[in-house]
Design a protein that fits this description.
CATH architecture of the largest domain: Up-down Bundle
Oligomer: single chain
Low-confidence stretches: 1-9
Radius of gyration: 19 Å
Number of strands: 3
Mean pLDDT: 85
CATH class of the largest domain: Mainly Alpha
Helix content: over 70%
Largest sheet: 3 strands, antiparallel
Number of domains: 2
Amino acid sequence: MAIGSTIRGASARQVLADHVYDDLMLALVDGRLAADSPLNIDALAREMEISQTPIREALARLEATGLVVRAALRGYRVAPLFTVDELTELMEAREVLEPDSAFRACGRATTELLDQLEQSISDLRNAPVDGAGESIRPYWEADERFHRLIAENAGNRFLLAAYTALGGHVQRFRLFGGLGVSDASYAIAEHSVILEAMRAGDAELARKTMHDHICGVRMRSIADSQQN
């Protein structure tokens, strides 16, 4: 086989694996794959009408995020529900990472980035918040997009990798716990003040407002989980 053909074949396999990863990630976050349920590679391959190889690759990547777990002789399973202690640890990690990303992104902000952040807030405002699963997918996507845009524009590949490793844990916690979206008005207001700080070019204020936002998300999520 020619070298060019080999490279093209490897590239095509990677694209397929990426699509499988994205599809499984969304199914984990929107609740189609329930907490602690088994993930049968054969069944997933049949359902997606693909070979087992990209399924295995995607599950291995998802294991690294903590959304999927693997046990010897038992295979892969969806991770169980968060405990309050685990949720607290997750939010503490976000408190370390995201304020610094906001500080860095503010110093590098372009008009395009600011417009994209504004659009994500608009989409968040217009997204449905009743119900769970697929019905609130637009809300989750808009919320995640705001935070990811900031992480992607912080100019530090390792901060971005650390943020990416956190995956969709917070949204998944809410959906698996049947909590849906209870803090939309807070999230919209808090995203807006972060954006205002970035538009003003005030990096320290961007850091502070992001920190305040993550602290607020932590308190609201824990309160919701204890009421459920």
